[in-house]
Amino acid sequence: MQSAANGRIPTLDGIRAISIGFVLCAHALGTGILPMTSRAHVFGDIGVRSFFVLSGFLITTLLLRERARHGGISLRGFYLRRALRIFPAFYAFLAVVIALRAAGYIAVSDRDLAFAGTYTMNFHAERAWYVGHLWSLSVEEQFYLAWPLTLVVLGMRRALMVALVGIAVAPVFRLATWYGWPELRALTDQMFPCVFDALATGCVLAIARDQLEASPRYRRLLDARWFWLIPIACLASRAVTRPWFDFGLSMSLANLGIAMTIHRCVSRPYGAVAAVLEHPLAVRIGVLSYSLYLWQQLFLDRHATSWIHAFPVNVILAFAAAALSYRLIETPFLRISDALRKRSAAPASVPAPREPVVATPRALRPARETAS
b or e along 235-274 (b: 16 or more beta carbons within 10 Å of the residue's beta carbon)? Predict the structure, then answer.
């Protein structure tokens, strides 16, 4: 992978930009002059799903790199870096929501705030719009808690099996929820057991990347001119609305298509696609993607009638709020995280279990862990 001078990976930032673009499109449709479409949710699903797969890939790659360099994974260091990256902007957003509720501008229940503040929104279906999007950040936080511990306790081979089992059983959980528990249908694509397969797909790609690239047949597939037809077809399957296909197959296909896209882009950072992903504007939007995801929900509300919720004013305000959040809240804490990383020349690591040597991902140049 190629890294920018500031330690970020432009190609991945470009993928983040496209992902947040899908989310913004899904939420902006039906506001102002933009028409509403019955397939708006598909755009949002693809955007969030892309974030999930990318998170699984990047976090696993960084953890395995740490393991290879230091002989173990520092759970304390990982959790501290994640907390500095995620919590400040998240709880600042939640504080603004509470203030707006107190002022009477928005309606958010105490239950909404409780589920949001504890990162369990993905198990709470009846919620206000303004905090509804926090379900995906809850999934991410649950992944951050569980996956590094899984790698440390079980080792890479067994963790790989956990990820593969997660990929296999998630469709079963989704179908069982949809057909067996009608009262939980709204959470069929949000509860952690039902969506872990997206994150797990990225984890598997990170662990098996070198093994995949050792296959001449797979390399030819990545290099083929018609390669892009595969991820496009996989993502297009999300437009099918029949539950048995939607929850049983198309979500898995979409995860696969996104993972293949990520692999192609990071292993072959050249050509027209890479040029688009590494364009300065795309990189900048990717850098802001976490803040954008947080704050856009206050402005992109098709059920509201205020001028601040009408396109294109709502999108402009969302970007303005995101830029302020990144500059005033995220950046200072990222600097603290970088300083702590530099001071820990020899961080205390939890030794990983001994196991047979397997292929590990290619070493990344230093990059901020910005999977969110």
Answer: bebbeeeeeeebbeebbbbbbbbbbbbbbbbbeebeeebb
Place of tokens 């001078």: 5
Task: Describe the chain by its helix, strand, coil percentages, rounded to 5.
Answer: 75, 0, 25
Residue type, 66: E
Q: How far apart, in whole angstroms, are the C-alpha atoms of residue 309 and residue 85?
A: 28
pLDDT tens digits for range 262-278: 999 998 888 888 899 99
212 within 8 A of 361, measured Cβ to Cβ: no
The one-letter amino acid code at 271 reads G
The enclosing H or E element of 332 equals helix 331-343
CB count within 10 Å of CB 275 equals 12
Helix and strand tally (H, E) in the chain? 16, 2
Q: Against a cut of 0.85, is the pTM above it?
A: yes
- According to DSSP, residue 189 is labeled T
For 284, the token pair is 């900048």
Count of structural domains, the chain: 1
Residue 369 lies in a domain: no
- How far apart CA 93 and CA 110 sit, in angstroms, is 16
Question: Model confidence over 29-57: pLDDT tens digits?
Answer: 999 898 988 788 899 999 999 999 999 99
Cα 182 to Cα 195: distance, rounded to the nearest angstrom: 18
Q: Are 323 and 74 in contact (CB under 8 A)?
A: no
**Structural domain range at position 151:** 10-351
